[in-house]
Design brief:
By secondary structure, the chain is mainly alpha-helical. Helices cover 90% and strands 0% of the residues. The chain has helices spanning 6-63, 69-109. The longest helix has 58 residues, at 6-63. The protein is rod-shaped.
């Protein structure tokens, strides 16, 4: 319809450029968000490794009678809580990333 109507071509071009700019802005924002989420996943991975290492060390120290059972149970409880928290946050980031990708695909199709 637009190609047949010269009066509408200018308006259509303005709208096209407007949406093209908005799409570029969304792409830039998506890139920034993904970068921040990737950084956070690296931080979470480091925290997970530290918690698992601490848990393992405590277990070894407990078995060799270097720490009391009370201390071992405290360390075990705290590391379990950290591991659960990190696992939950990793899952949330994965969900956000998946939803974000679907939304941006839909926007591009429209």
């Amino acid at each position: 319809i637009v190609s047949e109507n010269d009066d509408m071509k200018a308006d259509a071009e303005i709208i096209h450029e407007k949406y093209k700019f908005k799409l570029a802005t969304l792409d830039e924002m998506e890139s920034e968000i993904k970068s921040k989420l990737e950084e956070r996943l690296i931080e979470l991975d480091t925290q997970m490794k530290s918690a698992k290492m601490l848990s393992f060390d405590a277990k070894v120290q407990f078995k060799s009678n270097e720490i009391s059972e009370t201390t071992f149970e405290t360390v075990k409880s705290c590391t379990t809580e950290v591991i659960e928290h990190v696992t939950h946050e990793q899952s949330e980031i994965s969900n956000v990333t998946s939803v974000n990708t679907v939304v941006l695909i839909i926007i591009r199709l429209v």
